[in-house]
Specification:
Structural class: mainly alpha
Strand content: under 5%
Number of strands: 0
Shape: rod-shaped
Radius of gyration: 21 Å
Low-confidence stretches: none
Number of helices: 3
Distance between the termini: 81 Å
Helix content: 55-70%
Length: 104
């Protein structure tokens, strides 16, 4: 007997992952985006990343997949916000340093 489903029913369960392997939790990316980029969005990403494995072990496969996707989305949001904030900071820093009328 094999694990493969009968023909015509697709390769994976409805969630998109085999039953033995949980979806990626993106915890490392969530932690790095929290420390290096944007604290509020990164914390949200960590919360969702922490839910993935526990939901998977409890049998909530759809919930684990959704938490995994939310963790990834919030890590991306944190990275983008951190990048935008860094660009704005650099622009303001150079604008103040090279502004007319300032002498030190």
């Amino acid at each position: 007997m094999s694990y493969y489903p009968p023909p015509g029913q697709g390769g994976y369960p409805q969630g998109g992952y085999p039953q033995s392997a949980p979806p990626p939790n993106h915890l490392v990316w969530a932690i790095l985006s929290t420390i290096l980029c944007c604290l509020p969005a990164g914390v949200v990403s960590i919360v969702f990343a922490a839910q993935v494995n526990s939901k998977w072990q409890a049998g909530d496969h759809q919930g684990a997949l959704k938490a995994s996707n939310n963790a990834k989305t919030w890590a991306i949001v944190a990275a983008v916000l951190g990048l935008i904030g860094s660009i704005i900071y650099a622009i303001l820093l150079f604008a103040v340093d090279s502004g007319p009328g300032y002498s030190y």
